[in-house]
Amino acid sequence: MTAIFEEEDGNTPLSPEEELDLIPPLTTRSELNQAERLNINEARVWGMRRSTLARDDIVTDVFGRDLHKRMFNQVWKWAGRYRVSEKNLGWEPRRLTEGVRNVFDDAKYWLANGTFPVEEAAVRFHYQLVQVHSWPNGNGRHARLMADIIMAASGNPELTWGARTDLAAKGEARIKYLEAIRMADVSGDTRTRPVRVTWVEVQNRPL
Questions:
Q1: What residue spans define the domains of the chain?
Q2: How confident is the model at residue 168, as a pLDDT?
Q3: How many of the other CB atoms lie within 10 Å of CB of 148?
Q4: In the CATH scheme, what is the code of domain 18-159?
Q5: Count of CB atoms within 10 A of residue 60's CB?
Q6: How far apart are CA 57 and CA 64, in angstroms?
Q7: Distances (CA, A) of 22 to 42, 72, 77, 83
Q8: Which residues pair with 22 in a beta bridge?
Q9: pTM
């Protein structure tokens, strides 16, 4: 059995204070993963409802916070609240509100003006949101679900993210996804080249 807070590749390490905010009495990583998976599935069902997709505030930080809360509110007390701890990536805690709003404002402009195809706008949005890294954990999962909701609200199929599988689970699909993100990081240009790398992974739908 794996210790519940043992670090896994691609997961943001929690601070001791954040670990104390675990709600259910879980003891292993597999139990935690399953609890989060069930919570996220409920949030996805809510996010894909017609009434949710018809909302005019989807591309806003208010909706983003509500979605994160729904994704993790049965597992973590900090669900829906921006992190206050420093991490080894992402923006400084004091600038998170600014960073998240910038990302949503960019996405809103792209979608309103047809700057990019909807699929590319959704992937760019996902990448930039992950770069801000506003949550104690669940940043990638939240950004992917937000992108899928944007796609669905625009009348398009959800993205496959390179494979129709759970990218939070260990496996080849997750490895490729993380490699795409890291290749994008290395280029140092968050507006153009890095998202194209991730975009290629999304367009490559081998599974």
A1: 18-159
A2: 57
A3: 21
A4: 1.10.3290.10
A5: 17
A6: 9
A7: 18, 10, 7, 15
A8: 76
A9: 0.83
